[in-house]
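[AMINO ACID CHAIN]
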Amino acid sequence: MLDLWAANEALLAEAGVDPARIENPRLCTACHPELFYSYRRGDRGRLATLAALP
C-alpha cells in the first residue's frame, strides 16, 4: 500500500528539510469529520475546483 504521508516526508527530507522540523500528525480528513469540514461529505451538493498552470 502507498503511504503518502511517508512519501511526502521523504520528499521533504530529500529537498533538504531537516527531518526534526517535519511535523506530520497523520490525521485523516475522512476519519475525523469533527476536525475537518468536507464539502464532498456534506449534503449541500456543491463543489468547486480551481486549477492554474504557469
